[in-house]
Amino acid sequence: MAAHIASPSAQSAQWIRTRLLIEQADALGCSRHTSLQGTRITPTMLEQPGHIITVPDQIRIMINTVRALPNEPLGILWGKSLDVFSRDRMGLWLSANPTLGKLLDAALQLQDLLSSPVRGKGVKDKHYYRFELHYPPTTDPSASLVRLHNESLLAGLLITFQQLVEQPLRPASVQCCHPQPTYRAAYDDFFNCPISFDQRVTALVFHTADLDLPIRSHNPSIQTLYNQQIDHELRQHQEQSSLSAQVKMHLTRLPEQSHTATAIAKVIGMSERTLRRRLEHEGITFRDLQHQVLSEHARELLQRPGMTVQAAAEQLGYADASNFRRALKRVTGSSPSDLRRP
């Protein structure tokens, strides 16, 4: 389904990042068979750079690896393997900016083209710049998947920034919304700055003066060309994305517990009343979209070889298989066994 596929700018980068995670997990003792369990990806596909990794498959791989390696700093090690080149065209666009501050501004502008439910936000005062990472409102910060995601984002971003300014870049501090893991020392060794856990948001905090650090690969002519491409792709994205398509996209990416009109309206940036009114103008209701997403995702998951009802329920955010079965019956009138049929 189109909603599961990243934009053209992110597709091949997603394949690269997923493969790097699997290789890192393999080196720590999590076999590829374990990493790929419950996905449509085979080891052969990992050798095909043109293969598109869907968001659900990537999430399943992340869940598999972090569960298999609960006491290893997998996210930090994964993030350390990510650099500007693993970000494909997005990385090249970012590298064309003149300073770290301009790069951060560009990264925030580009996030609508990415497939992540995590939203970036820049907060600047006289002394510090906070590059914050905001999860959907009902995300459980203690979940191991959140920890893995935080670690890889923080480590990967810092490695990318250091690569582009061609010098060591030490954050003023690092803040994590997840609890402190057993391998706290790995954070200290890598970030080499004050680190706090159980915070309201996850953030890389830099000294304001760091924003003026020059990016060595900056070229004004190339930046102009890239900016034209970015503007074109952003316009296309906005024009092709009706409100109902945006709602379905967020219903696809956010945990099932966030599938309320209030939560989705907040993520999109409008009131619930406006959301419902505009959907009505498009000839559809919020409830219709909820039902479509559940039906499509449940059918896709249940038709995968080896996928159990319990595993499908977990991936869709349900507490157990019983709740999942009841929701399917209420929404689709079908049972899991019905949806398994082609």
Lay out the secondary structure.
Layout: H1 11-27, H2 32-36, H3 55-68, H4 74-80, H5 88-95, H6 100-110, E1 119-124, E2 128-134, H7 144-165, E3 173-175, H8 184-191, E4 195-196, E5 202-207, H9 220-240, H10 243-253, H11 261-268, H12 272-281, H13 286-302, H14 309-315, H15 321-332, H16 336-340
Parallel strand pairs: 3-4
Antiparallel strand pairs: 1-2, 2-5, 3-5
Folded structure, characterized:
Helices cover 54% and strands 7% of the residues. With 342 residues, it is an alpha+beta fold. It has a five-stranded mixed sheet with strand order 1-2-5-3-4. The longest helix is centred in the middle third of the chain and has 22 residues, at 144-165. The model is unreliable at 1-9 (pLDDT under 50).
Q: What would you report as the Rg, rounded to the nearest angstrom?
A: 20 Å
CATH fold call of the largest domain: H-NOX domain
Q: Strand order within the widest sheet? A: 1-2-5-3-4
What is the residue-mean pLDDT, rounded to a whole number? 84
The gist of it:
This protein has 16 helices and 5 strands.
Descriptive keywords:
single chain, 342 residues, alpha+beta, H-NOX domain, Arc Repressor Mutant, subunit A, 2 domains, five-stranded mixed beta sheet, 16 helices, 54% helix, disordered N terminus
